[in-house]
Amino acid sequence: MKNILILGIFISLIACNPGNKVTQANLELIDNYVTAVENMDFDAMDTYLAEDYIGIGPSYGDTINKTGAIKNWNKNVQDLYQKIEYKRSQILPAKVDEGENKGDWVSNWAEMEITYKDNKGKVTLWANTVYKIANGKIVKSYTFYNEADALEQLGYIFINPNDL
Predict the structure, then answer these.
(1) Max CA pair span of the chain
(2) Considering only CA atoms, which of 107, 130, 103 is closest in space to residue 22?
């Protein structure tokens, strides 16, 4: 993957500054997590999520804990997804200095291609997930992507009820 080379250069630049060891470790953690998602390895995903992990999104009101997230991934791997491929991926560190979300974060912007089982189709999504990292684990994530776009790519048609 071309982005691994870019990530390697980025991590090397960060590594030159001894004060950025936490940032480097956080970038590596998210790179490993993304690889686990791409490999549909929910056992590996489990090792990267903190016990008190909370995942939010993509829809307003979607919230899940670690147990639910691993259970969903397991079900999706068995029943839904044939393949997940990150066509392009960029991860960037950020630090929030105050407020409710104070801490170390890593953002992953990605172009993902998901192939569904049983010839149900393929979708390409632009997705962004931001991960809060504490003590070497992912403690929180916010995921954003256009679910309607994915459904349209699978052939769903949206009709305004007022037009019926």
Answers:
(1) 64
(2) 103
**pTM, two decimal places:** 0.82
User: How far apart are the C-alpha atoms of 16 and 27, rounded to whole Å?
Assistant: 15
Q: Is 162 part of a structural domain of the chain?
A: no
Q: How far apart are CA 8 and CA 132, in angstroms?
A: 21
Q: What is the pLDDT of residues 110-138, one digit of tens each?
A: 999 999 999 999 999 999 999 999 999 99
Range of the structural domain that residue 40 is part of: 2-153
Total structural domains in the chain?
1
The rounded distance, in Å, linking the Cα atoms of 66 and 28 is 20
For the segment 54-61, the average pLDDT, to the nearest whole number, is 91
| 49-56/81-96 β-pairing | unpaired
Question: Nearest 5°: phi and psi at 100?
Answer: -60, -35
pLDDT digits (tens, 9 = 90+) for 58-75: 988 899 999 999 999 889
Half-sphere exposure of 28 (CA within 13 A, CB side): 11
